[in-house]
């Protein structure tokens, strides 16, 4: 069993990752922005309130942790902070000797059979999603520049939606996964299953990977 620290623990992916890790017997510390967000977490989970900035990641948060998961998503209008936040968390985790597992975005994935990506394919993304997609692309480029065996980068498929936990999914690497009907999706619950599977198995140390049905 591991000690796992989860940033963004009150978010859609973060709180599901907390629940999945707790269900498997890991000791979880959840980091949230506001004290009131702790009510969304399972009973017994240690909660820390911290407003993380690119130049301010409290080192004390990392002490005694085996693994750090970053499921952070900046508020609307502050998407450009994402790469800096990820870099700060990576450096703090590295200094503490903890592995890092980052929840990325699908922006950098190649479309099946094409040279274009989710971000660069004309008209693929609705305009309102472009700011977070561009931020996730910058986050991925940061990962590439700092690539090392002490962290990995999990990206969703085209659609990441609330649903059910089936425990089933497929893994891929640099290309967006689709099913036989061309759908590219996974439930947030199974995305969290894949995240904690990676935490336990370490199958993709030092690289980006993706999961989908």
From TrEMBL:
InterPro entries named among the record's database cross-references: NAD(P)-bd_dom (IPR016040), NAD(P)-bd_dom_sf (IPR036291), Polyketide_Oxido-like (IPR051606)
SUPFAM superfamilies the record matches: NAD(P)-binding Rossmann-fold domains
UniProt cross-references to PANTHER family, sorted A to Z: FLAVIN REDUCTASE (NADPH)
Gene3D superfamilies from the UniProt entry: NAD(P)-binding Rossmann-like Domain (3.40.50.720)
Coiled coil: none
Pfam family, one: NAD_binding_10
Residues covered by the NAD(P)-binding domain: 8-197
Protein name: NAD(P)-dependent oxidoreductase
